[in-house]
Amino acid sequence: MKVKAKVSFAGTFSMISGEIKECGDKAILQDLLKAGYIEKVTIDKKKEGVANED
Fold first, then answer.
1. How confident is the model at residue 31, as a pLDDT?
2. Which residue from 34, 31, 32 is spatially nearest to 15, judged by alpha carbons?
3. What is the value of pTM for the model shown?
4. Is 33 strand, coil or helix?
5. Cα–Cα dist 25/38, whole Å
6. What's the CA gap between 54 and 46, in Å, rounded?
7. Taking the CB of residue 44, how many other CB atoms lie within 10 A of it?
8. Domain-by-domain residue ranges, the chain?
9. Cβ–Cβ < 8 Å for 5, 42
């Protein structure tokens, strides 16, 4: 899962504020989300090159 750090933190998994990183460890993700240190990153998938038909 891609996550963005709300604050800087260090440990087994470390990030600085504003950094976006991939993490696959569910236990670490759960702890950091619960503590409010990270947020999930959502990716908007837009189709390119497709014109609107009105």
1. 97
2. 32
3. 0.75
4. helix
5. 14
6. 18
7. 4
8. 2-40
9. no
Which residues on adjacent β-strands are paired with residue 38? 5
Distance in angstroms (rounded) separating the CA atoms of residues 10 and 12: 7
Q: What is the pLDDT of residues 11-25, one digit of tens each?
A: 999 999 999 999 999
What are the residues whose beta carbons fall under 8 Å from the beta carbon of 44, sequence distance 6 or more?
none
- Which amino acid belongs to residue 19? E
Residue 54, token pair as written in the block: 């009105």
Q: What are the CA-CA distances from residue 44 to residues 2, 28, 41, 47, 48 (Å)?
A: 13, 25, 10, 10, 12
Q: What is the pLDDT of residues 25-48, one digit of tens each?
A: 999 999 999 999 999 998 777 666
